[in-house]
Design brief:
Number of strands: 5
Largest sheet: 3 strands, antiparallel
Distance between the termini: 25 Å
Shape: globular
Oligomer: single chain
Length: about 90
Amino acid sequence: MRKNAGFHLVATGKDLVSPAPADSFQTIHLYKRGGTIRLMVDDVIEVAFDDDGKTHGPVWMHSGWIGLRQMAHTIRCEYDDLKVFPLKP
């Protein structure tokens, strides 16, 4: 996981997507509240990052964008049923 601006590598995790069979479907959840970010694949945490708001700049609290990126080894990727929900207080 990288934090922009600055492209800082802030967290890494085990790849839970590539080892899956080519014809399988996976459910991916991305959770962000304040400086807490969790990326889960089939309900297993793949990447966890707790932004302290100091090391790599302030915690981003504004509404923004979602970027989905595949690496060079990705042969095929499909997205379906993308939903974005506000978190309840």
